[in-house]
Prior knowledge:
Low-confidence stretches: none
Shape: elongated
Largest sheet: 5 strands, mixed, barrel
Mean pLDDT: 89
Strand content: 35-45%
Distance between the termini: 72 Å
Number of domains: 3
Order of helices and strands: HEEEHHEEHHEEEEEHEEEHEE
Structural class: alpha+beta
CATH architecture of the largest domain: Beta Barrel
Strand order of the largest sheet: 1-2-3-5-4
Amino acid sequence: MGEASGDQAVTRFLASIQVGDLCHGTVAAVSRSEASVILDGFAGQPLGVVGPLDGSWVRSFADVAAVGRRISAEVVAVDLDEGQVRMSMAATENPELWAFLKQLRLGVILTGTVAAIERFGVFVALDEGPDHPIHPGVGLITYPELSWTRFDAVTDVVAVGQRVSCEFLQFDTWNGEARLSLRATRPDPFQVFAEGITVGRTLSGRVTKVIPFGFFVQVAKGIEGFIRLREPAVAPGVVPEPEDVVRVGDEISVSVLEIDRDRRRLTLSQRSV
């Protein structure tokens, strides 16, 4: 009975907290992965959690989270199932930047200049809003959001110093970044291609990649379809090796088996040609 009553008390307390609220409390324990915080108004157990990346963007976690220290942090998530409130001290440390990122809405177009190219994405220094305290730009474009088509090098798409317009995707509260999409501001070549193609149509294309269970064929600029290895005409019951069927660079005729516009997938067949 006592445990159930305690769970109800936790649920009632958490239900009164909203994302964006400013909470105060005392650090009860610190590990490598998080700091547990006893929140003001509920002394029974530590319900607040601050992760290392939520502690500070400029100071070490040990400097901002120590047992017994009083802290103020903004609520970024309330998990009723786990009975936890995830909080960010970085938000209160950088209120101007946090306020700017919070007011952005999905789909808004942001402009800026490519500030740096890293192995995980491209930083963009936005024209509006404050600078980031540690990163070269507040905006970040991950590689999949750079282009609709495959590319060998990031510099084939953007270069440092280049002006870009991007669509806002989400506020990354862990790193204090605006996740952006460059490709979302440009027509999707797959959808344009799919408008004029029907299942069963014969196309000509060039083999671009061979993998153990099939190969890719480029049938238009930026458009590739996939043929499963069982598709080529071979003797019944024989599973061929990829190099026995085609090689990269071969020009072949294929027919369209399926067009999946939602997943941007084109399935081809060589057998029915």
